[in-house]
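If you are new to this repository, start here. Below is one unmodified record pulled from the training split, so you can see the exact layout before writing a loader.
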Amino acid sequence: QVQFVESGGGLVQPGGSLRLSCATSGFTFSMYGMRWYRQAPGKGRELVAHISSTGETTMYADSVKGRFTISRDNAKNTLYLQMSSLKPEDTAVYYCFRLPGTSWGQGTQVTVSS
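And here is the target side for that same chain:
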């Protein structure tokens, strides 16, 4: 079955950086567009970034544009999110998602605080 295992989250100071990873299994990773979403406490799930199946096309939410970079390694079936210049408002649980799809992983917690 389709599975996602997100990792790389943690506690970081404002202005810091983190790199999230999403290991996938159960489908042909290279054939699907992928996304990162996040959910802050008390809020709905928000689309953060999208990448096409080949990695040639990327799109970002305005709130992270210029600070976050989505990428993928189709040989390793893994999705990445490089986050820099982190702000307290980036605090959330981050999830990867296959497009189209219905499955979610457990997510990885990112906390930006001094």
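Two things worth knowing about this chain: Strands lie at 3-7, 10-12, 18-25, 33-39, 45-51, 58-60, 68-73, 78-83, 92-99, 108-112. The longest strand covers residues 18-25.
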